[in-house]
Amino acid sequence: MKALLNKLELSPSLVRAIPFAIFLGLTFCQGQFGEASKYWFYLAKTLVGAWMIWIVRPRIAEMRWAFSWEAMLVGVAAFLIWIGLDPLYPKFGRGATSWNP
């Protein structure tokens, strides 16, 4: 394990690609081993994904916590746009007609 972490520290691309490849591999396994496996692999990839983020976090500079007013402004703007667009989406459900091509 220590050798893998040392190798990850030397390669900025590997420290980003290997956790994603593992997560993707677990995603492809979902549902391949019976009906219940999609739930077990979902749990596994969630836990393994969180663990991998915890392990690589100190090795990726942009994952360090930092506060900036620009980031706060962009976050608030994205939230307002998201909420503001809601009335413009078609409502499906009661009283709405569905469109079939």
Overall description:
The structure is a single chain. The protein is mainly α. It has four helices and no strands. It has helices at residues 2-10, 12-29, 37-56, 69-85. Helix 1 crosses helix 2 and helix 2 runs antiparallel to helix 3. The mean pLDDT is 85.
Secondary-structure map with pairings?
Elements: H1 2-10, H2 12-29, H3 37-56, H4 69-85
Please tag this protein with its features.
mainly alpha; single chain; 4 helices; 101 residues
Radius of gyration (Å):
21 Å
Uncertain segments:
none
* Major sheet description: none
Helix/strand-derived class?
A: mainly alpha
Task: Provide the helix percentage.
Answer: 55-70%
N-to-C span:
54 Å
Q: Name the shape in a single word.
A: flat
Mean pLDDT: 85
Strand portion: under 5%
Please provide the count of β strands. Answer: 0
Order of helices and strands: HHHH
Number of helices: 4
Write a concise synopsis of the structure shown.
This protein is mainly α. The chain has helices spanning 2-10, 12-29, 37-56, 69-85. The termini are far apart.
